Amino acid sequence: RDAGLALNIVAMLHNFWEQKQGSASQSEGLLLYESAPSPRPPYIYYVTLPGGSCFGNYKECETQAEARRDAARVALMNSLVNELPSRRITPLFITHSLQEAASASTDACDPSTSLGAYCLLLQSYTGRTMLEFQEGMTVFQLLHWNGTLKILRERQCSRQSVIGYYLQRGLDASMRSSMALDWLGRERQTPRQLRMELRAAQRELDVARCHGNELRFYKEKTEILSLALSQEFTHQPHTDIHGPHTDSQESPEPHIHHQ
């Protein structure tokens, strides 16, 4: 019976999201499974859910099939827990979260502060789940890591406009490419910085995976840095930055660097 359950865990995850999405006609590409390149065990597998959340196997697996099943098991457990009422973002949850994060000198109602920005993000996800909120937060984690948020602050973009713009846009191939080019420019200014950052990101990804955590932020970092490394000798430096213009804070227009 245990073997049968193990064999069916991939199908169970697929069925859960097929029912949740109501997309039986498009079920073939509902979940994305990826294996990390490895000539020998232990093998690593990742599964990306429809909203972008990513999970991996945290057991040491002797076969790729076992790693795939374990990744599906971790993803299914998190998917089921995410459906609990306690995982829903409510006004009460927002209040408690802000109270925990607040300091005596910080005003959560002021969107110009970091806590105020966190409040705006939480309010944007009222009625939705923590997994959905984390999917949105990942975009801003990447923008902070990449230095984009700092540049947008220097351009005097309001936090409201930045949050509104990126919540609507999400994370796409153009943004990943632009971030990769940013890191390529840093590599030309400081040789070997890119390789050091990639090694650190890979370690973070491994630690998070072994703890059964949601992985998208760490996985996106490694993929962006790997893309930059692969393009090291094929692109010229660039100075553009993606994001909203400073002169359109209510409905900012995208300003994207294309290759």
UniProtKB/TrEMBL annotation:
Please report which protein family the annotation says this sequence is part of: Belongs to the LIX1 family.
Its taxonomic placement starts with: Eukaryota, Metazoa, Chordata, Craniata, Vertebrata
Instruction: List the InterPro entries.
Output: Autophagy-related_EPG5, LIX1
Highest taxon, organism lineage: Eukaryota
Q: Where is the signal peptide?
A: none
Q: Quote the cellular component terms of the Gene Ontology held in the record.
A: cytoplasm
Output the GO biological process annotations, alphabetical, semicolon-separated: autophagosome maturation
User: Mind telling me what this protein is named?
Assistant: Limb and CNS expressed 1
Q: Which residue ranges does the record annotate as region Disordered?
A: 236-259
